[in-house]
């Protein structure tokens, strides 16, 4: 079950040091997936080779919903961007968001395969 995170990233800044406007905000999970995953919400629209998600945090909103912070490296351009996705209910967090984050985890894990083999 996903819940609010308390990650300690020590010295990893939130946002882009060189460009404070290099961020994105989405009013809901649905708006985010329609922007990044295509209209059907399938994984086929999200390409980890270009949008490398290397950090995430889950925060509780005052209304009881959650918001997701994503730190993403746009690898083709070498740009570090920071995304906020708001108004995520508990069910969506533990189903859709968790499944999507697992895909990002699998991508990272595969990058380091030679080390564990």
What does the model show?
The chain has 117 residues and is α+β, with helices and mostly antiparallel strands. The termini are far apart. It is globular, with a radius of gyration of 14 Å. It has helices spanning 29-36, 90-111, 113-116, and strands spanning 23-26, 51-60, 66-74, 79-88. The chain has a four-stranded mixed sheet.
Can you describe this structure in just a few lines?
The protein is an alpha+beta fold and 117 residues long. It contains 3 helices and 4 strands, in the order E-H-E-E-E-H-H.
Characteristics:
single chain; 117 residues; 4 strands; 3 helices
Radius of gyration: 14 Å
Helix tally equals 3
Unreliable parts: none
- Head-to-tail CA distance between termini: 29 Å
Topology:
Layout: E1 23-26, H1 29-36, E2 51-60, E3 66-74, E4 79-88, H2 90-111, H3 113-116
Parallel strand pairs: 1-4
Antiparallel strand pairs: 2-3, 3-4
């Amino acid at each position: 079950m996903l819940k609010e995170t308390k990650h300690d990233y020590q010295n990893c800044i939130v946002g882009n040091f060189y460009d404070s406007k290099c961020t994105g905000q989405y009013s809901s999970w649905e708006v985010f997936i329609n922007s990044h995953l295509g209209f059907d919400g399938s994984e086929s629209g999200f390409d980890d080779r270009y949008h490398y998600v290397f950090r995430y945090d889950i925060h509780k909103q005052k209304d009881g919903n959650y918001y997701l912070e994503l730190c993403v490296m746009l690898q083709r351009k070498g740009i570090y961007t920071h995304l906020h996705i708001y108004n995520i209910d508990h069910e969506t967090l533990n189903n859709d968001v968790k499944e999507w984050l697992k895909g990002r985890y699998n991508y990272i894990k595969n990058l380091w395969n030679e080390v564990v083999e």
